[in-house]
Alcohol dehydrogenase, class IV
Amino acid sequence: MNILETGIKNVRNATRYSIGAGALADLPKVLANRRAQATGSVVYFIDEFFRTSQQLIDRLAIQPADQLIFVASKKEEPSTDGIDGIVADLRGQLTQNPCAIVGMGGGSTMDTAKAVANLLTNGGRAEDYQGWDLVKVPGIYKIAVPTLSGTGAEATRTCVMTNARNGLKLGMNSDYTVYDEIVLDPDLPASAPRDQYFYTGIDAYIHCFEALAGHYRNAIGDAFSRETLNLCRQVFLQEDMMSAAHREQLMVASYLGGCAIATSYVGLVHPFSAGLSVVLGIRHCLANCLVMHAMEPWYPREYEEFWRMAEHQGIEIPTGIGRDLTPDQYQALYEATMIHEKPLTNALGEHFRDILTPECVTNIFSQM
Amino acid sequence: MNILETGIKNVRNATRYSIGAGALADLPKVLANRRAQATGSVVYFIDEFFRTSQQLIDRLAIQPADQLIFVASKKEEPSTDGIDGIVADLRGQLTQNPCAIVGMGGGSTMDTAKAVANLLTNGGRAEDYQGWDLVKVPGIYKIAVPTLSGTGAEATRTCVMTNARNGLKLGMNSDYTVYDEIVLDPDLPASAPRDQYFYTGIDAYIHCFEALAGHYRNAIGDAFSRETLNLCRQVFLQEDMMSAAHREQLMVASYLGGCAIATSYVGLVHPFSAGLSVVLGIRHCLANCLVMHAMEPWYPREYEEFWRMAEHQGIEIPTGIGRDLTPDQYQALYEATMIHEKPLTNALGEHFRDILTPECVTNIFSQM
């Protein structure tokens, strides 16, 4: 278990959070405070989903000198090249660093804001910081405004990026990647498409059952994971998962699930899901759900519960992706999965390669 | 419910925490970092219980210019006059503000460190800041090292002090009162007396059942409270509450219980307990347990569970304190209890005075 044994856990919390329906009204106040303390404008990263939501954008009180960048979250996940492009553009436009960066959207948008905030103060390219504790100095002050709940990006110390050159899907794992403030307004996910709301929300559930089933355990990670699962069961196994009360509970589950992941490891689902994202370009939260097609032997209780949740909420999970893959694609999927040594060790022990043979991995992907 | 309705919750987290057996080794590292960044020495507030624990004190790597103050936690709880005295002494001895303050001990010691840290930068007297959001500027950078778990003082935005002049037991409720760092080392409570360990630990249980039974509820407070109760049941209803695993779980329960209280209110037990502390000088955690003698009609399930926990762990809760009180003492107890309008409203609604008549309150105290 050596690669998991990190000994004492040193955890950086988000310094503040606001929570409650209408909490978005706090954002202009927080930013006014930042504007008074530091020079520079504000850069907003907003999910393209809200491009035409003028009423919502008006509530942000964006100033003339601020930058508003819509993040193309639907087509693709953050990439190192994409982040480098945004940073180069911003450097061309800004005469000084912004006083704050806002990431308003789902996991991709929040991760984009985190990565850009780190690069603006640290210099270099995004891939220079893929790994653990490579970020040298604090990033720009940053505020998360999740509009979809589940990934926990608002609470974690990473921002996941795909690197096209080496095929690696890996984040800037650093205390400096943690948001300074989080605005949790359960009104914001109300307009999300139901399937997207489910796929994203269930990421919190998957994170936490993987953590609790793992070899590496600790008291605080377990506590956060247990309560996250409890909240997810309330949201997805009761009536409408998108009621006001359930939107708020899922927002809390996402935040606590993020806190859980900060002190634990995921298991089998996430490495396979990463394989699907890297090789086939399937977005993270949907990819997790596809992996669940094949998880019955590995997580039997959670497999049953997951499919009950999907059925209860009337969400269809696509199937058939693994049917017509070429041998080269299976090989690429195998490699992109097996590179995730830490979660695989957490799930199966240090001899995970003896269990996850190429045949076994191919068989798992073929069931999706 | 108006006095409870605070709308959107703005919550300040402790910026960092370390957790794990042996985490105390992190403290000298954190302080070395502070010493490098800021001028001034370090002031350590340490529970008098450790006065003769030279081995432990050696591990702190205290420097010659630092101040070490033992807090007389056994005799009395923090008072406004006591805090003012410490601040005056420090001002006389220090030529500049310290670069960090450490509070190592139970709730009294951690609260003393918080209050002194605020006063050294804000000036004035402790009683000037008893209330809500009266602290104007950040205090000295402060680090909590709990050696007893339960009160949640390491996580909350208050530091409770008794004011002898007006009989009020009230804290400096402020975001600036929140610790910057917390070192959670479950080895530290191993030497605590069993009864003290129980009295203090059960404070987390009582906080959270009061919050969950209250009128004022919210999704994140509820989540923290539920998991705190879950952890307390594991600690106090299974075998030895002081095993290494249970010490760590109780440390997590205390931290999460503190996070719960930051977004919710206590109920009936704490106002009565405050009455016992103010009028009869009984320490907070023991006072809570005495109040539980009379809580059967108010919290029947938790009453039953509390006494089962005490019995299971072989802890004796004193009785008879309410037997020989004078009418003047009963009157003083009534007043010192009823002053706590927020928790009493949370427990019983805005017409709590119609329920808690002087006769009813006297009857409750007489059962202790």
Notes: Chain A has two domains: 16-187, 194-366. The first helix of chain A runs from residue 26 to 37. Residues 26 and 211 of chain A are 33 Å apart (CA to CA). The mean pLDDT of chain A is 95.
